Amino acid sequence: MGADLSTAANAESSDEFLKAVLGAAYDPNTSLGQDFDPSTLLPPQLKSATTEDLKELRDLAARHSQKLRAQIKAHSANNNAGFIETFTSIRDGLGSAATASRSDANQHLNRYSNIVAYDATRVLVPKNKENFNCDYVNANWIPSEGPRKYIAAQGPVPASLVSFWQMVVEHDARLIVMLTNEIEGGKLKCHRYWPDDNMAKPVKKVKIGTYIVSFEGEESFPTYVHRKFKLYLESGEARDVSQMAYTA
C-alpha cells in the first residue's frame, strides 16, 4: 500500500524545504516507542512504598539537593572556573575506533570533524537509493539499564536529512529531544530538519526520501518548545512524533 496521495500532493519536496530553510545559502549539490509515560521510569518498588519510605526518599533528595547547590556555587566562583576545569578534564573518547565517521566518503554527513560516531555503538540505517547506499549517520546508541533505548545524534546537515529521518523511522523513535538552538552565538549549530508553518515561508509538510513529515502544531514554554509531527511511511502507516526543543 502506497502513501496517502492526498498527503503527498501537499508536501514540499526535500529540495524545496531546504531552499526555504537555507535561502541564498542553498546548494542543491550538497548532498525516535509509543507515547511517553513518565511513570514508567519510576522504580517498581515505589509503587508500593510506605509513608516511611517516602519520607526517607524526600529527606535523601533534600540532602542531595543541598549538596548540589553547594557544588554549583563553588564551581561558579571565579567566572565558572570549576565548571571549566571539570569540562576540560572529561575524556572525549577520540581514542576509540570511528572508521565510518572518519571515512572521506562520509565527511559531508558530519557537522564537526571532532565529533564522531564510534564504530562499536554507532546507529546503522539500511542502505537504499535515498541515502546513496550508505548506512552512516552521525549517531550512537546510549546504554540504558531500563527497557527504553536512547540515541545521541548530531544535528543534521542538509546532506544527512534523509538519513536522520530514516533513523527515526527504522528505530521507531517517537520523541526527539533537541538540546541546541539552530543559531548560537551567531553560529549555525543545526539545520532545521522539520517543517514549520511559522517560518518566513511556511512549510506544512515536507517529503524527505520516501517519508512525509507533517507539522501538526507547537506549544511554547519558558525554556522549551513542544512540537508535534505526523510521520507518514511509504506503507501508509502514520506515526506521531514529538520534539522537545530546549531554548534556555
UniProtKB/TrEMBL annotation:
Q: What class of enzyme is it?
A: hydrolase
Output one GO MF annotation.
protein tyrosine phosphatase activity
Domain Tyrosine-protein phosphatase residue range list: 83-248
What Gene3D superfamilies does UniProt report for this protein, alphabetically?
Protein tyrosine phosphatase superfamily
EC numbers, comma separated? 3.1.3.48
Q: Which InterPro entries match?
A: Prot-tyrosine_phosphatase-like, Protein-Tyr_Phosphatase, PTP_cat
Asked if the keyword Hydrolase belongs to this entry, the reply reads: yes
Which keywords does the record carry?
A: Hydrolase, Protein phosphatase
Listed under GO biological process in this entry are: signal transduction
Looking at the keywords, is DNA-binding present? no
- State the superkingdom: Eukaryota
| Database matches in PANTHER family | PROTEIN-TYROSINE-PHOSPHATASE, RECEPTOR-TYPE TYROSINE-PROTEIN PHOSPHATASE
Membership in a protein family: Belongs to the protein-tyrosine phosphatase family.
By what name is this protein known? Answer: protein-tyrosine-phosphatase
- The species this protein belongs to is Monosiga brevicollis
